[in-house]
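TEACHING EXERCISE
Course module: macromolecular assemblies
Task: Read the component lines below, then compare them to the predicted structure of the full complex.
Student: A.B.
Group: 4
Components provided:
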Amino acid sequence: MMAQPKRVPLPARNPQERARDFQEVATGYDAAMAREEAARCLQCKYRPCVDGCPVGIDIPGFIGCIAQGDDEGAWNILSRDTALPAVCGRVCPQESQCEQRCVRGIKGEPVGIGNLERYAADYFQSGACPVPQQIPWNGRRAAVVGAGPSGLTCAGELARLGWRVTIFEALHEPGGVLTYGIPEFRLPKAIVRREVENLTALGVDVRCNIVIGKTLTVDELFEDGYEAVYIASGAGLPRFMGIPGEGLNGVLSANEYLTRINLMKAYEPGAATPIFKGQRVAVVGGGNVAMDAARSARRMGAESVTIVYRRGLEEMPARREEVHHAQEEGVIFRTLSAPVAILGENGWVKGLRCIEMALGEPDASGRRRPIEQPGSEFELDIDTLIIAIGTDPNPMLTRTTPGLDTNSRGCIRADGQGQTTRPYVWAGGDAVTGAATVILAMGAGKEAARAMDRACRGEPSEEG
Amino acid sequence: MYPIISKEQLNPTVARMVIHAPLVARKAQVGQFIILRAGERSKRMPFTVSDVDRELGTVAIIYQVVGAGTMELDQLQAGQSLHDFVGPLGTPSELEGLKKVCIVGGGVGCAIAYPAAKALHRMGATVHSIIGFRSWDLVILEEQFRQVSDRLRVMTDDGSHGEKGLVTNALQEWLEAGERYDQVITIGPLAMMKFVAATTRPFGVKTVVSMNSIMVDGTGMCGGCRVTVDGQTRFACVDGPDFDGHLINFDEAIARSRMYLPFEQHAREDACRLFQKEIR
Ligand SMILES: Cc1cc2nc3c(=O)[nH]c(=O)nc-3n(C[C@H](O)[C@H](O)[C@H](O)COP(=O)(O)OP(=O)(O)OC[C@H]3O[C@@H](n4cnc5c(N)ncnc54)[C@H](O)[C@@H]3O)c2cc1C
Ligand SMILES: Cc1cc2nc3c(=O)[nH]c(=O)nc-3n(C[C@H](O)[C@H](O)[C@H](O)COP(=O)(O)OP(=O)(O)OC[C@H]3O[C@@H](n4cnc5c(N)ncnc54)[C@H](O)[C@@H]3O)c2cc1C
Ligand code: SF4
Ligand code: SF4
Ligand code: FES
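Instructor-supplied answer key:
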């Protein structure tokens, strides 16, 4: 059979219908679609796709299983390298990772690796695979700070190595950005809860409402008998633009908007936490966070939602699929535009003054630098402005933990295996890299878990 | 779950609740706050730590019923539990080295100011206190303030208790009479703190205010609590809640405190119906 140049499209709900609720947009492959898509994989000997995956998943391996109808085998292969396949299949920027390297992409579309990963993981979620069993205790205890993807992965990995692990989470629910940031319509919270339940089944103790650095310090964790500490406190501190009008009512960070909606469930009728329901919303930024905020605003009933981004559509760091879905849902894109001032009336936002940009030479990040076009200013008529221009590591823990060095951006300094400047303290995920991706945060958690285990057993490090 | 050990009504709308939360009790210092959620679907609400018993592992808060959230909290009784309780959050008040201080509290803000008055008194500082209320039936903590204050003035808007007038009248009189304070600490409604700061400005007395911005996480993650201090954006939950009152943009803060007013009114009416209560 001659393989198709195009991939099996991921079925998604009708844009008009889905833009009014918070249920998941993409419905996922069924078994027939998955088999058909898996058959497009050439099972390349040199496995270029695997090099594109930050955690080195055996991609041809698990896809081969799906092609043969062995979904459980696929799940087993996935779970060797990732703790959260149902999450990564949905949120990884595949087009710049595994799928970018896929040879099928040279002529036609790359294999839908993410879609297949999601399919195999959902097979497990449906209850077809057994819940993990607790491993006999090896006598060691570790503390993990932060229950985001990095902390959860590290804890799971340590538990599989026989450690007793306690995760300390500042918020009232675990999951990190998966819970408070990424909306339900893109990542159902039931998936996150299920992953946490699996960890609990492995014997991991998840303790919410504890802020390390405030409720307990890192020193106290050691006094309490934890041998090693992994810090995965994320990069949750929102940046503002520093332009006039940011203090006006109706101006909020994407984190605030999304936390109210996701963590506090403000989209549900009768929710206790208020949400600002703007009619004409602008979102500044071009990443996943901006797309999530814009699409959430649409669902909260905004008449118009405009993304304001200073570079072009191609330069947007958001996943392609999210940009595409946002466009389908009627989000307007004003690319090559940058805000210069927020206009107000009686303390409330009434407009956004922007300036047009042109792209110049590539900057340090390799992306073409935006340059203001004099005299090109224009105004948007808005009542809500959501700022999604990035976040920095949360300083609450580093401010109160002696011996933990940070760089100028507040990121914790750590080596390739997560070892910080403080003995027996490791760190990883966004807290070390600055805002990055779920899969990198997971990869760091896994790497650190192994390093922690080696160090505490007195084995030499693997690096070098 | 965090068990409620006791609950005591201080006036018709203000109550003191003691909660078992040993980790918070061990750490909390004057000026810090906690965030709680009454039930599984409740909102997160910040309250100042009023008192702790490190041995019993308990934390006391004093809250005023102002809207749907506090009304829901007020339904809970001793023996029941709070769903979530996290802290201590925020930066402790800097009281070290203060020799003579004037504490100015308004309404339930007096409850937030009292721990500072008590701590300063114990440290041997001279404490002058001015506490203000709308009327006699809302007066709280008068006896407690008397015990830790070298001088105390109780003000009511309608003169139904203590002296008739505003806290700023009393403060102005003391300052004009030549009282010199290392610091004025004021906690109450934003408008009151704004006027206290305006009163002390000509006298050049450092004035510390406690900003009760609208908060969500309380961990520096949402930026909802931001205030403009000396032209800079600061987060009340991690950089504060104490700030230099002469540097705060109060007009902005007052406007921001009204951001969710329509939602709150609606929620309050629903809650009044649900709990069959009236709010004054
Ligand atoms: C809206 C949004 C959309 C995104 N979309 C994508 C996407 O599509 N694909 C993708 O790959 N990436 C995406 N990202 C980025 C991705 O979510 C992050 O890179 C990833 O979550 C980082 O994981 P982490 O475990 O390092 O930190 P986090 O997920 O941030 O978790 C950190 C946790 O630590 C807790 N914490 C912080 N300080 C303390 C403390 N002192 N004590 C105790 N607990 C503490 C926090 O409350 C939090 O729960 C998105 C991010 C956002 C905000
Ligand atoms: C650091 C800090 C310490 C506080 N300490 C105390 C205290 O010790 N005792 C006490 O009675 N109150 C205290 N508050 C205020 C208390 O959190 C609010 O009164 C409560 O959240 C109101 O919720 P509600 O649903 O009953 O009222 P709502 O109907 O939501 O609000 C009524 C009014 O209270 C204000 N408010 C609403 N939500 C918040 C919020 N999350 N934070 C601050 N103000 C809000 C608004 O301006 C609103 O107009 C404190 C607030 C902060 C930020
Ligand atoms: S984890 Fe992410 S990068 Fe790796 S194979 Fe899966 S989707 Fe691709
Ligand atoms: S590169 Fe593409 S076709 Fe080749 S093994 Fe990987 S997924 Fe299959
Ligand atoms: S309450 Fe969210 S940053 Fe302060």
